[in-house]
């Protein structure tokens, strides 16, 4: 007659727990088939070191997957119930096996088990609420950061646009020649700050394409710092006025649109301007930048600024104007890329609006 170990059991609404009193158990075999659990293992039980086995036919259907864990003192078995519920007993037969007893360390009656479930649910809900608050805090911080950033940029470009407009009305054509001296400090600040937009796109703070943003920021800063900033001869050129004016005209529409977007608010007129005004202004801005590049090429040739020295055997150097010719080609390539990107944005935006209207 096979030896049977002492087995203690307890339950919850979802699981059955069995604790087999068998120390140093080895060659453990646990299986559930046709709602009957079969157990066999070598270990030290009530009859010393022997092979012990038992079987249990459950009261209700259980899932065939069994989880068991062995420690030096016992073997723990977990069986999933086929349906959530509370069993009046463990086995199909009313008379329980002699080796089976309640596990009072884990024993709960039905009301206690329901209370435990409620406590678990409440704990889950508290964790969810805590995570939700953390997410809300992060979203609020991100929203505040984006709003302040867009507000600062809007104020900066608004000052540039209004200042240039007022000076144009007051001084007329003369205002075209001193734009750099009166406006450049604020434009330098705004364009340095614009680099944050590339980081925002790269790190997913905003849902914008990294490449189009990078093309615009790098392109503008190249014109501002390399052409206007480093060549004193360019400071009094009217092209500075047109470049700065077109840049600021675009941005005084774009940044308020982003500010409202931080709070999921929309002003239809501003939205239409945001997705329409670039059609004339963006190509004009690139054209003005191209004129600045062309005007700077003879100056770079004459001053040898940024020229690349070659070995003495060649006896010459590569003028930076060669880089400017390459940049001129890249500028129009960037125009095509950004124009296509902006057109897709506009088409997607107003197509969505039409669908909502229908």
TrEMBL record:
The chain crosses the membrane at residues 143-166, 186-206, 213-231, 243-263, 275-297, 317-339. InterPro entries: CS_dom (IPR007052), HSP20-like_chaperone (IPR008978), Tyr_Pase-like_PTPLA (IPR007482). The keyword Transmembrane helix applies. Pathway: Lipid metabolism; fatty acid biosynthesis. It is a multi-pass membrane protein. Residues 2-91 form the CS domain. The keyword Transmembrane helix applies. GO terms for cellular component: endoplasmic reticulum membrane. It is an enzyme of class 4 (lyase). GO terms for molecular function: very-long-chain (3R)-3-hydroxyacyl-CoA dehydratase activity. GO terms for biological process: fatty acid elongation; sphingolipid biosynthetic process; very long-chain fatty acid biosynthetic process. Pfam families: CS (PF04969), PTPLA (PF04387). Residues 110-137 form a coiled coil. Keywords: Coiled coil, Endoplasmic reticulum, Fatty acid biosynthesis, Fatty acid metabolism, Lipid biosynthesis, Lipid metabolism, Lyase, Membrane, Transmembrane, Transmembrane helix. Its EC number is 4.2.1.134. It is found in: Endoplasmic reticulum membrane. It comes from the Eukaryota. It catalyses: a very-long-chain (3R)-3-hydroxyacyl-CoA = a very-long-chain (2E)-enoyl-CoA + H2O; (3R)-hydroxyhexadecanoyl-CoA = (2E)-hexadecenoyl-CoA + H2O. Belongs to the very long-chain fatty acids dehydratase HACD family. Catalyzes the third of the four reactions of the long-chain fatty acids elongation cycle. This endoplasmic reticulum-bound enzymatic process, allows the addition of two carbons to the chain of long- and very long-chain fatty acids/VLCFAs per cycle. This enzyme catalyzes the dehydration of the 3-hydroxyacyl-CoA intermediate into trans-2,3-enoyl-CoA, within each cycle of fatty acid elongation. Thereby, it participates in the production of VLCFAs of different chain lengths that are involved in multiple biological processes as precursors of membrane lipids and lipid mediators. Catalyzes the third of the four reactions of the long-chain fatty acids elongation cycle. This endoplasmic reticulum-bound enzymatic process, allows the addition of two carbons to the chain of long- and very long-chain fatty acids/VLCFAs per cycle. This enzyme catalyzes the dehydration of the 3-hydroxyacyl-CoA intermediate into trans-2,3-enoyl-CoA, within each cycle of fatty acid elongation. Thereby, it participates to the production of VLCFAs of different chain lengths that are involved in multiple biological processes as precursors of membrane lipids and lipid mediators. This is Very-long-chain (3R)-3-hydroxyacyl-CoA dehydratase. It comes from Dissostichus eleginoides.
